[in-house]
Amino acid sequence: xxxSNLCIKAAEVSTEFEENNSELKKEYIIKNIKLYNKIVxxxxxxxxxxGTGYPFYALKKNLEGKLxxxxxxxxxxxxxxxxxxxxxxxxxxxxxxxxxxxxxxxDLKQVCKPCPNVHSELKPRKVINRLPDIDLWMxxxxxxxxxxxxxxxxxxxxxGFRTSDVNPIRTIDDLIIINNDLKNGKxxxxxxxxxxxxxxxxxxxxxxxxxxxxxxxATINDTIPYLPIHPLSYRKTWQYDDMAYNFVHDYLSSxxxxxxxxxxxxxxxxxxxxxxxxxxxxxxxxxxxxxGPKSVxxxxxxxxxxxxxxxxxxxxxx
Length: 318
Hints:
Blueprint: H1 6-19, H2 23-41, E1 46-52, H3 71-86, H4 95-101, H5 108-112, H6 124-128, E2 134-140, H7 145-159, H8 168-183, E3 194-200, H9 201-221, E4 228-229, E5 232-234, E6 238-240, E7 245-246, H10 247-253, E8 256-258, H11 262-278, H12 281-291, H13 294-300, H14 303-315
Parallel strand pairs: 2-3
Antiparallel strand pairs: 1-2, 1-8, 3-5, 4-7, 5-6
Helix pairs in contact: 1-3, 1-8, 9-11, 10-12, 12-13, 12-14
């Protein structure tokens, strides 16, 4: 790929993927999810898995339903194109560096943050975040997380799962191929970039049970419900990110469980029932928007995703 207009190309790739809401695309995404679950469940330390983010906030519990075209994602991508053109970049300043050095960078944030040539609105991490990926979590025995991460590194390599960070240029190239395959009615062989995490069983159980109290305390004190979580995450290597996730947001927006045992499933059912019996759907929707980053909140304001959220909480009442 030419490095000319690499920023724009990343945005266009993301938009083309978003605009395709065919049944084939949904089948392709489900293929990625099933393969991930097959990989992680092959380990003896496996205690279940979780999907968060896209497509889990857009589909029903059993990954049923039609994928909506999320206009906010397209607006977000167009914003990147506009900034690039406004700044007059026919060649994005970071493009040549990424082409030469991305595969050797330990972490894009580490290298790019102090760099004097990085434009504030066109940081490589901001550009790469436009690219579609899939967030999947393995639940493992708490004491085995480090051992599990080493095994998953090798298994991901064998099966072809990669993160966007490994080589952003190749990621864009791969997504162009994926888009073309889907457009031509062909099931892609290449997999989506993966954003994978490992969380301990006991930690997850504790987090689930804390959600109702965290929401109640935030309601009483008129604050945003916040339950920080620091899972081990797969970037270039496995690492603990410098920023915590707000577990309440994932719990409300997209938390989709696979193969939970009776104890974990009971915890989810009890806490979900507690929440929907104590708060209105509108209150929970406001919490959903308040607990996520601004770009995510704007996405959830779209009609299709708002409807899907109300269907989600309605299912917790049953």
